[in-house]
Amino acid sequence: MLVVMKKDSTEQELAGVIRKLAQSGLNGHMSKGMERTVIGVVGQTYPELRDTLELLSGVDEVIPISKPYKLSSREFQPEGTVITVGDVVIGGDELTVIAGPCAAETEKQVLDTARAVKAAGANILRGGAFKPSTSPYQFRGLGKQGLEMLALARAETGLPFITEVLTPHDVELVAEYADILQIGARNMQNFNLLDEVGKGRKPVMLKRGMSATIQEWLLSAEYILSQGNRQLLLCERGIRTFETYTRNTLDISAIPIIKRLSHLPIIGDPSHGTGKWHLVTPLALAVVAAGADGLMIEVHPNPDQALKDGAQSLTFENFEQLMQQLAPVAASVGRRMPIKPEEEHGE
Amino acid sequence: MLVVMKKDSTEQELAGVIRKLAQSGLNGHMSKGMERTVIGVVGQTYPELRDTLELLSGVDEVIPISKPYKLSSREFQPEGTVITVGDVVIGGDELTVIAGPCAAETEKQVLDTARAVKAAGANILRGGAFKPSTSPYQFRGLGKQGLEMLALARAETGLPFITEVLTPHDVELVAEYADILQIGARNMQNFNLLDEVGKGRKPVMLKRGMSATIQEWLLSAEYILSQGNRQLLLCERGIRTFETYTRNTLDISAIPIIKRLSHLPIIGDPSHGTGKWHLVTPLALAVVAAGADGLMIEVHPNPDQALKDGAQSLTFENFEQLMQQLAPVAASVGRRMPIKPEEEHGE
Amino acid sequence: MLVVMKKDSTEQELAGVIRKLAQSGLNGHMSKGMERTVIGVVGQTYPELRDTLELLSGVDEVIPISKPYKLSSREFQPEGTVITVGDVVIGGDELTVIAGPCAAETEKQVLDTARAVKAAGANILRGGAFKPSTSPYQFRGLGKQGLEMLALARAETGLPFITEVLTPHDVELVAEYADILQIGARNMQNFNLLDEVGKGRKPVMLKRGMSATIQEWLLSAEYILSQGNRQLLLCERGIRTFETYTRNTLDISAIPIIKRLSHLPIIGDPSHGTGKWHLVTPLALAVVAAGADGLMIEVHPNPDQALKDGAQSLTFENFEQLMQQLAPVAASVGRRMPIKPEEEHGE
Amino acid sequence: MLVVMKKDSTEQELAGVIRKLAQSGLNGHMSKGMERTVIGVVGQTYPELRDTLELLSGVDEVIPISKPYKLSSREFQPEGTVITVGDVVIGGDELTVIAGPCAAETEKQVLDTARAVKAAGANILRGGAFKPSTSPYQFRGLGKQGLEMLALARAETGLPFITEVLTPHDVELVAEYADILQIGARNMQNFNLLDEVGKGRKPVMLKRGMSATIQEWLLSAEYILSQGNRQLLLCERGIRTFETYTRNTLDISAIPIIKRLSHLPIIGDPSHGTGKWHLVTPLALAVVAAGADGLMIEVHPNPDQALKDGAQSLTFENFEQLMQQLAPVAASVGRRMPIKPEEEHGE
Q: How many separate helices (H) and strands (E) can be counted in chain D?
């Protein structure tokens, strides 16, 4: 952090800044002789220190020069994080393909979808048991019953599963069932929830908030990491912009940016990122071409019967086509498709 | 909701839409003879029904024509909601002026601020005990100890107080102390939290999410109202845009829009809405001129010593000036300033 | 501008930066001894120099510390600019109220509106002769014929008029007729047009672009000022955000910000800023309460017959009510309403 | 367009709407018997008709159901537009790769770059002679001299070139030299300029405006097409969002959306779309994977010496690597790389 003093600042004002820094356990190295005096701040700063320093007399501007996140940064850990879930390795050469229905609705729907996505080559199952819903009058998920359906599908197919947890109180329950806990976009700054999943040891996938900058996203990751849980995966799922044709604007540039700034694996979710099934495949190809570690795709046996997010769900057939189109793209950027399982789970 | 069929849709496709509606307990009234066939949907619809219907064969577009919120709408309740907290009436002719520090830090800081804002004419005290914080390395509030400081300040000054609750688990505790529960911008779609405060009977203030449309905001209000709690107040606090000079862009148009669409009282928060103390007063005047029921203003004895949000906090002196400038503006739009208390509370 | 070197940067790299600065006619003052070496750049910099310096070996970050605009800044000219157009003084104590139809359609429409807005207290007439239109199939204005109608209305009522100019080629023609040339939001970065109106001596009103930051807006102002034309007025008319209820989001915080950063007068346009007539009056009051020098309001004899922007136009009656409501608000912030003319122009 | 009447609308109000439509040369087909009466509008409508109809008494809402653009739509022309420029076919199986410096600076710089990008496999040269520049104090291009440098490079290498035109007055001059005229993002709604390039027969590339919706972009395309010029190409170059890490947010979803809605070829510009050279290659791969017809890439012999946009320019070596990485991705989505020329132009 650099404190830029006003042109006409006094010695007293300079001393005031140094004093204020000392109160926060920080040192200030003064540098005069330029157009203005600039004070370099040494020590662990945080975003809001800037606000405080800007209020001091004689200060013109305060400029952050180091990043406010640490544990999530590639400076802190140069090699990429690798997460192992059952037989699946996230963050390695093999793509992670998470697929399944938006919400678990019936045992048959979950089982049929799990079998279909496995057959097409997905290596992780998704499905919502606790669903965030914009309106109180909509479907909000089956809760524990949904978790049981997903667990059954795992037993049948061998696919580990990921499911969303909405509130700290449910973390224990969801962690009993799920292989990966999902923090949804609306909860990216639900700090109590971040703390709670950070205290556990189940892998976590943190989705980017709808209006979160990349820096804020990494700060939310920092919450989880700083509680001790290092099994963390990020998911870009689109940001809110003025464009109305799509539900969100999938920010594919976030993928190489995260790869540069952080060691955490990152996948893309073109289903939520676009909101329209016919855009899912081209955006999925783009996500992988841009260097993502994987994809998350909504698949439903009958999208027009789905209780939630049917418009962005692929049919089994469309998902299979996506996987076929994906294979050469993955190869072209040096990624392996998930190895198709040997169907040993009784299909 | 209107279902617009494609130009070349068939009778079978029409029948399919009608059948699908019937499954959801809705009726469809067909209307041919126009350029295209349009089906009017009768019954209580919800946003995601649109997605489902758009997937049906022969459907070109689905258009919502009624609003997805009900209990929060002015159609449902033409007269404005009035909330009574102690001697304060929110939603009447008298402005509600909520003022105080971002966070409760020390007993002295809270008490001094409470006395100062009361003397200047505020009628409700604010102060954070549980603070959301972008970084895990920043101050997150004093918790219960902070609540006790605020309760003490209430006892001393007679001012009721509002404070934020971050997670369902804390609702009971916070409700024991506070007069109004605040749901912050980051939690506007924390639906479990909305449910929880909706089950209680303490008045709630729901801030608009950083990237929430007005319709989504009213749907979040609907969560609280539909649980039975009708003591609900809204607060516009700025939305996220591309402009970087301000922390957020205060959307003052939201004030007359909410007045038109809803019966709920609405106030404005120019402190968070701008992030800069020197913009607070002009925006506060604008908020009241636009028809708001009140204001929420951050005030701190020493903004440059504040643990949080100092840059947007007013000094006691600046807050007093704001109140003086506000008085004629309030009068010019037919609002009364809060009656200054008779200092009967031992100051 | 500050050049922050990487922690491990070498002497050669430092020398490279100094050399690069020298090539651009700038000096670099080095300051070591802090956590990192920082080079202060002395001389007139420009935004893209930052990009260039960031590419140099050993450079970590380049940070602008002075503003890239100069002639439009309050540092350059502490006292506010005052523009005199006929009897109207823009930027003084008296509010400037510009009113009239979106587009000049017929002689009668223009004359009737001019008389009505004058009677209600407006002091400048507006009306479009050259209209930007999103679709090529819509009305694009009457051109010279429209200018003649506006000139006739000026002759009849004594009101000076403002009208938009769309392209450099038309500047001469429009300047022959109009008292103030308007640069619309879509042309805020039409730099050839800015040059052209900058070369003339007719007062200019520069609207903010739909997605322009305040800094970009002031840089566009700089184009006009640097060509020699100092008769410049700014107009906030709403920015593009994710909210869809309003056509744009009127950024009222821009008003006190411009007052702080610049000496140029600023007015607000709640008609384009909201796109809905029923929001115009509350937002107009807010604009004035926030400290604007005036307003621009669309008024039409029959909004439902308007060829353009009827939905945001006020009827004569609604405009008269707006002016009545505005008077006490203006007074409450120390502004005088325009003096109503003595009707000496034959009405 | 559908006009939805209020629940309690009267026969007179219905008749008023029908009358109003008739005045605009449109028919209205009434359809009662639903929850509300809905009037279907038959005939060519335009966006602002909606505003006008919404003002009529008894009208609740007006809903567009047909697209306001026509000539640019895939309904109008199901097969994709193909543009032939010299030996290059845009919109076919072969990718179009446009590369070159942001601005033409010196003969040597342009020639060296043209040779390098040709050798690496680009098939069109880019270079700015007239440059839009946010600040009046920055480099604005060499004008005619720049055009001559580009023409010389074309003569030397055989590469056709594209360059931007900023103002209607320059269209004739630029068209004399260039093979394709570029309309930049800032001019997407410079309607006089659109008219002017629409009247000519030189191919045009229309970049998306920074805050333009896809519909507005296609309406701007409509301006050019409706003047008779059908040689039109679109270019996605990023939209303005709240994210500050990138200069813009490249909206890759626009590529499959344009492919669906329109017959016009579309390419992506990851240089402007990100503003950082190290993001160009991953985003270029993503653009092609998503189905684009080509790319536009900034390349400079010495990015750190560039007069403009050095930070987003690739070196010759980096561009060559990009092309090598692109080849398998292009193949994986069924596209051919441009055929490398037989170096017959004296290199």
A: 11, 14
User: Which value does ipTM take for this structure?
Assistant: 0.90
pLDDT at C245: 92
- Evaluate if residue A9 carries a pLDDT over 90: no
Chain D contact for A333, CB < 8 A? yes
pLDDT-based confidence at A347, cuts 50/70/90?
very low
Q: Which of D186, D202, D216, D220 is nearest to D86 (CA)?
A: D202
Q: Contact A223/A194 with Cβ under 8 angstroms?
A: yes
For residue range B229-254, what is the model confidence (pLDDT) as tens digits?
A: 999 999 999 999 999 999 999 999 99
Q: With b meaning 16 or more CB within 10 Å and e meaning fewer, what string describes B33-62?
A: ebbbbbbbbeeebbbbbbbbbbbbebbbbb
CB neighbour class for C278 (10 Å; exposed up to 12, middle 13-18, buried from 19): middle
In whole angstroms, give the CA distance from residue A200 to residue A192: 13
| D323: its two tokens | 């092309």
> pLDDT tier at A82 (50, 70, 90 boundaries)?
very high
Cβ atoms of D197 and D165 closer than 8 Å: yes
- Contact between B305 and A20 under an 8 Å Cβ cutoff? The reply is no
- Provide the pLDDT confidence category of residue D343 given band limits of 50, 70 and 90: very low
Contacts of B55 in chain A (CB under 8 A): 277, 303-304, 310-311
Instruction: Check whether D345 has a pLDDT greater than 50.
Output: no
**What are B280's two structure tokens?**
């607070």
Compute the distance between CA of residue D169 and CA of residue D173 in angstroms, rounded to an integer: 8
A138 to each of A126, A300, B25, B45, B49, how far by Cα in Å?
20, 18, 14, 9, 9
* C-beta atoms of B290 and C286 within 8 A: yes
Q: Give the Cα separation of A125 and A97 in Å (integer).
A: 9
CA D109 to centroid of chain Cα atoms: 27
Residues of chain C with pLDDT below 70 are: 31-36, 42-47, 65-66, 341-347
With cut-offs at 50, 70 and 90, classify the pLDDT of residue D332: very high
**A307 vs D274 pLDDT, higher one:** D274
Cβ atoms of B59 and B245 within 8 Å: the answer is no
What is the C-alpha separation between D13 and D22, in angstroms, rounded? 14
Mutate: best of A252, A279, A293, A321, partner D, most D CBs <10 A: A252
Where do the DSSP E strands lie in A150-254? 161-164, 180-183, 204-207, 232-236
Inter-residue contact A252 to A299 (CB < 8 Å): no
Residue A107 has pLDDT above 90, yes or no: yes
**Model confidence over D46-64: pLDDT tens digits?**
667 777 788 888 888 887 7
Neighbours of D20 (CB within 10 A): 20
- Interatomic CA distance for residues A214 and D249, integer angstroms: 12
- Position with higher pLDDT, B42 vs A97: A97
How many CB pairs (< 8 A) connect B and D?
A: 50
Coil, strand or helix: which one is B194?
helix
Q: Does B63 touch chain D (CB under 8 A)?
A: yes
Show the domains of chain C with their CATH numbers: 2-63 (3.30.70.1140), 83-332 (3.20.20.70)
Q: C31 and A31: CB-CB below 8 Å?
A: yes
How are beta strands C83-85 and C59-63 bridged, if at all?
A: unpaired
Residue B93 clears pLDDT 50, i.e. is over it:
yes
pLDDT higher than 60, residue B206: yes
> Could you say which residues from 171 to 200 on chain B have a Cβ atom under 8 Å away from some Cβ of chain A?
186-187, 189-193
- DSSP state letters, A228-280: T---EEEEE--B--S--SSSSB--TTHHHHHHHHBSS-EEE-HHHHHS-HHHH
